[in-house]
Request: fold
Amino acid sequence: MWSFFARDPIKDFNYELLPENQEKSGIWTLSRGKRKTTGEPVSVFVYEISQGTEEQTQLAKAAFKRTKTLRHPNILSYVDGLETEKSLYIVTEPVTPLAAHLKLQAEKGGASDLEVSWGLHQIVKALSFLVNDCHLNHNNMGMWAVFVDRAGEWKLGGLDHVTSEQGDSISLPPPKVINPDLERYDPPESPGNGGEKWTGDVWRLGCLIWEVFNGSLPRASSLRSLGKIPKQLVPHYCELVGANPKIRPNPARFLLNCRSPGGFMNNSFVESCLFLEEIQIKEPAEKQQFFQDLSENLDSFPEDFCKHKVLPQLLTAFEFGNAGAVVLTPLFKVGKYLSAEEYQQKIIPVIVKMFSSTDRAMRIRLLQQMEQFIQYLNEAAVNSQIFPHVVHGFTDTNPAIREQTVKSMLLLAPKLNETNLNQELMRHFARLQARDDQGPIRCNTTVCLGKIAPYLNAGMRQRVLISAFSRAAKDPFPASRAAGVLGFAATHQYYSVAESASRILPTLCTLTVDPDKNVRDQAFKAIKSFLSKLETVSEDPSKLAEIEKDVTALAQTGGSAATWAGWAVTGVSSLTSKLIRNAPAGSEAPPAENSPTPQPAAGPVPTNTAAPSRETSNEETVEPDKDRWDDEDWGSLEVNDGYSNYVKSLLFFQCLTFYSQSSDWSSGWDADDSWSNEKDVDGQGQSSPADEGWGNDWDEDGNLSESFTPTSQNKASTGAPKSARLSSAQEGVGLASDYNWDGAEGKSTTSDLKVELAKKKREERRKELEAKRAERKAAKGPLKLGARKLD
Reply:
């Protein structure tokens, strides 16, 4: 009756055995299993008790006891166990028999000497622990007693025949009684006939070394043939299998001999493994040096070891050891071995936490290596946990961080939401392009804007692109001007025919006389492209809809990032650090009010700045439906000594171009579109940023830009006749002298008195416009986004 209520201990066992891949290991059956609650993988050694196997049952129970009580990093780790009347279960960490592991490695090309050296080091260390610390004899050393875990580390098992040096109360049968085939591994001397008690284990260790390199040992006499045993190991191996048991070394001494200079176990892999085992007690300086050297050695380490041994230590070092940025390079190297799911679970949480670090070295390394992990980041994490920290780099005082932050937007843009991409990011880009004192950063900002244009919504593209590229076309840095031209070309499909004719072509035409030949070449190519479109529409107006089909196209999704993401790292060179080292501070600062443009020296000034790569093309015409501007390598800003940080535009022609009179060059892209002023011929006043639909959100102070001042075309009285103003413009009244350009083409032909009078009138007109603007603002409130100002 009581047996009816008795509980089956096997059913209550916390582990489930998997039927596949069962292997025989001595008297045990090795099965794969998993924990029922968590699914964690384990290995389960099972022994079934049956009649007539009393000796084997005695060995199984002894092994159960030893495995449970012996704890050492190089001995098979006991997790759980179960003993019943019918069976014994020993649950350990997931392992594979050494013979099966070596067979699998042979299919992949064979185990490396580095892996074998560390494996033998672990087995000898475990044997030394048993002999010297526990005063035990293993008595069962061999290939069948060694197991390999997921990290590729060797573990000593087979504790069935372990005996004490002082003798046990229960005598266990020797291995050859259970398995006669093991007799060939016995030492030549009879038991207890000279030598130490551990000499038998050392002999069997020699047999194990022979089998690792040469396969199964056919007979004891084969030990004399060295086979494939490495030369560094030969003298120490010969000591293990010497006929005289008194000269066989203690396991600890054998380990020292192999670790001596030039020894088989004296290599970078063993050194790294030993350091990782003791990393918790190492000094911070030692850890820093270790992680710096680790990246160079990882390529030669086994893949499983990197995933299961190195990676956990790297994550622990960052989480609790304050290792800092030095762990990033080896961390991303190891990450290449992980699956997408493993990467999400192990590395992404650490990366997200790293972005909140205030360590500049950490931040810049994350930005530089973003390409390696961006595909594993989901949009929610990017927008809520990463982007808010990354944007601080736009205002960092270190130019290298600002540059890397700009370049990282190429990878982040496809994952940003509407607010972060079209508002927050554009606000920072406007500030960088207008106010940053480093020419390469302004150039890279223009390049990046052109690359992420497909991800902007249609309204933002209409509002930003023309103004931004027009501003870049007037930048004193030649590479920025070239980037502005190529930006127009690369985004040509987003402009209407009317915008191309009235706003883009006039801007490009001024660059056909640019001092820099590369800028001129790119300008001519772009002009041909846009003129070809206009000519196509002129010949066949029905094609207008087809040509303008992308003007109001929806923003692309992140799925197309793969078509250009590779450019993010290779296209834009890291130039800022070179600029800082070679150019004086502020040498590329935007021009201040009435500042004269420096004259070129007799020869070019060699500096490390950015220069766009140039394609040479002999094509006379560009078909509108086959524009090659998308293929233009307009982002490859490589270093070219032909550019000077100090060369600015010298020729000022009769085109009326606005320049800011404030010290910060401008307050945003909205103040840059000089071509909107053509409407002033009707007698209306100077257009404001609101006329271009920019609103006042681009001004950093929250107000409309006050630095956007009228040019000489608008200085004339609004009531002056149209013909008078046109004639004044045609005669070029005071243009060069008014702006004090000192260029050869712009020498003043009027008297000094006339110059002073023109300046005075211009100042009075500016004050009058400012007063009117203030009155309108006070009466009507702040201008709304996209509203047109009615005078």
Notes: Residues 1-5, 559-750, 785-791 have pLDDT under 50 and may be disordered. Residues 752-780 form the longest helix (29 residues). The two ends are 104 Å apart (CA to CA). The CA atoms of residues 83 and 89 lie 6 Å apart.
